[in-house]
Design goal:
- The chain is of the alpha/beta class.
- The protein contains 5 helices and 7 strands; from the N terminus they run ααβαβαββαβββ.
- Strand 1 (about 30-35), helix 3 (about 40-50) and strand 2 form a beta-alpha-beta unit.
- The longest helix has 15 residues, at about 1-15.
- It has one domain (about 1-149): Glutaredoxin.
- The radius of gyration is 14 Å and the shape is globular.
- The protein is about 30% helix and about 25% strand.
- Strands 2-1-3-4-5-6-7 form a 7-stranded mixed β-sheet, with helices on one face.
- The chain starts with a helix and ends with a strand.
């Protein structure tokens, strides 16, 4: 699974003009693709930094191609920004605690998503997540609940 993801990242780097080093920097930190005009995306990036993550943020005109190239193909799982950390896709307003848990447990999944823009999520109106689920998904877009808030 990691080999396929690395090939997709290489192709994404070529297609979108990023250096290979910038794309693969996710091994030591988290790389985020977002719109320059999205305030909640920047707030989520700031929240991650405040939570101790090393973040490299790329402002792009359209985040959707990055989602697809990373294997997130179900638009119902989309949010406003997409990130990558150590081969895992992080979609939307996923709390730092879930990212840390993901890194500790290392399940055989493609990533985590907080679909849409949950009102009481980090980067939106609350640092403490409330009233939504973070879902885990695999390469077939099969879902299960990772965390319930």
């Amino acid at each position: 699974m990691r080999t396929i993801l690395m090939r997709k990242l290489f192709l994404a780097a070529l297609l979108f003009g990023f250096s290979i080093g910038a794309v693969f920097s996710s091994e030591s930190g988290i790389t985020v693709w977002k719109s320059a005009t999205c305030g909640c995306c920047q707030k989520w990036v700031d929240y991650l930094r405040d939570s101790g993550f090393s973040v490299v943020a790329h402002d792009v005109g359209d985040v959707t191609p990055f989602k697809r190239h990373l294997g997130l193909t179900n638009p119902e799982l989309y949010s406003c920004h997409t990130a990558l950390i150590d081969g895992y896709v992080i979609e939307g307003h996923v709390p730092a605690s879930d990212i840390r848990r993901l890194m500790a447990e290392r399940p055989d999944i493609l990533g985590l998503t907080a679909p849409g823009m949950p009102k009481m999520s980090p980067g939106m109106h609350s640092v403490e997540p409330k009233g939504y689920d973070v879902l885990q998904f695999d390469k077939h877009q099969q879902l299960s609940v990772f965390s319930h808030y």
